[in-house]
Amino acid sequence: MPDREPAAVLALVCDVWRAVLGVADVGPDDDFFELGGDSLLAATVAARLAERTEAPLAPGALVDHSTPRTLAARITSRSHHHPALRALRAGPPPTPALVFVHGVYGFAFFARRLLAHLPPEQEVLALEAPALSGDRALPTSVDAIARDYLAALEQVEPARRWHLVGHCGGALIALAMAARLQRDGTPPAALTLVDPPPAPLVDIERCLRRHPNLARDVLRDPRLGPAARAAVHAHARRRAEIELAHARAPHARVDPAVLDRVAAVGVDLLSLLYAHRPPPYPGPVTFVASRRRARALLDPTLPWQDLVGPGSRLVPVGDDHLDIMHAHRGAIAAVLMDVVP
Length: 341
Known about the structure:
Strands 1-3-2-4-5-6-7 form a 7-stranded mixed sheet, with helices on both faces. 45% of the residues lie in helices and 10% in strands. By secondary structure, it is an alpha/beta fold. It has one domain: Alpha/Beta hydrolase fold, catalytic domain (Rossmann fold, 3-Layer(aba) Sandwich). The longest helix is centred in the C-terminal third of the chain and has 21 residues.
């Protein structure tokens, strides 16, 4: 049995951070992200600590436990919360909390990148795919994921009104959550979709025939056969290189096993998104989209127009998908704060 004494775990956390981040010194109260950490490096840290301590640890644990002291306390704690939920910041209960739904690779780190641009009193929660930790399988459908995530929010506060924010492929999960809340008589306070797919994947073949330029943004094979799966794995590795290029830790190292797990979650989640039939949501939706995708979202021949209610609006931000994730966080945060006064 590994040593889980608090002092021993704290020392181990600092050692693992030094090895992964490639830095010479890590103190108990140093912030992982200020040292140059990012989503893939956090996944590597979580994997190594889970192996060394035999304590289940999701990559997103570093989102809400970003210092060695708080992360060590999380490892040694016997309390357990819903594995998908990350509490990034507390806020006054009457105010609708922002709830970020992860993108196609399951990480919740887009929400954390926005924290510095949001008001300090704004409550922020994030949902991350528990499958990233390897100890829980991905649900078998997008609807099942939506039910699971709503159950996580029920643990925070029953019947609370949430401002749901779906990022990338997570837009379809957020849409399913909003539709379910609407059917249950407790609609969300707001629904914002940040750079969603140019069209819901339900009718992707028709969209590609009518709009060949969209082929650069989506995979062609709706069944996600071997060629498409290989493309997703290759894309995951390219994203890893991009993430590390934006990190401030030039000597950081990502475990190959972490990349394989991230790619596997991405493949499985994309398979579910292709099989999903998005429900209509009768309320207004705010789309925050890169200009490249905004042109498709405005197209009346694409299925998004039939899925959202009157009063929906589109706010163009940045030029492409990666651009708005890294260079336009302030503009996205401003839109989120404007949606719910």
